[in-house]
Amino acid sequence: MANAVASDRLTVTGNKDFQTEIEKLSGQNIASCYQCGECTAGCPVAYTADITPNQVTRLVQLGQADDVLKSSMIWLCVGCETCTTRCPRKVDLAKVMDALREVSVKRGIASGEPNVRTFHESFLSAVQRSGRVHEISMIGEYKLRSLDLFSDIFLGAKMFLKGKLAIMPSMIKNRDEMKKIFCTRKRS
Ligand code: SF4
Ligand code: SF4
Question: Which secondary-structure segment (H or E) carries 182?
């Protein structure tokens, strides 16, 4: 994959519709990426992923939707924005990753990191419910959906005993606004 991307470094070809879709959704000018690799050099999770952040932008430019949407990189991205601050072309790659995850879910593409995707969905579901993350209900939902029921059980118990996990969720005041944001994202 890495060589395929590197060898195509100087010729932007392929289906532009996909690039346009991701640019619109993320609000980023992906065409301006010139493959300097600064994003990848600073990314704390790139070493664990199947492709690097600059390869993500390259595949989008080339319209290689399937390759990028099934990659583990878009799900391993933690949104730290290190890449964003390093990019000389001011591409906010964290937003690009977010848009790619959204399209991946909409198209029902199997992720290279299924549990990361399940965690991501459980996190969003918790935010949608109360406007904040309530760790116990979020992890409960994640455990049920992933069927990973017993890993970290002792750590969870330890955190609970130390008072790190609230029993009741804390709700934000205007939850309707939060629901509207989720509805808008679903329709777009
Ligand atoms: S926002 Fe994502 S892609 Fe960018 S440096 Fe952080 S983890 Fe890597
Ligand atoms: S730092 Fe910016 S210009 Fe350089 S490869 Fe990454 S996204 Fe492209």
Answer: helix 175-187
Structure confidence by residue, pLDDT tens digits, 18-49 = 999 999 999 999 999 999 999 999 999 999 99
- Predicted TM-score (pTM) of the model is 0.76
Cα 185 to ligand 2 centroid, rounded to whole Å: 27
The finding on whether 71 has its CB within 6 A of some atom of ligand 1 is no
155 and 74 housed in the same domain: no
Closest CA to ligand 2's atom 1: 87
Residue that is last in its domain, among 87, 106, 125: 106
Residue 10 is classified by DSSP as T
Asked if residue 87 and residue 18 are part of one domain, the reply reads: yes
Tokens 């990848």 belong to residue: 40
Q: Tell me if 74 CB under 6 Å of ligand 1.
A: no
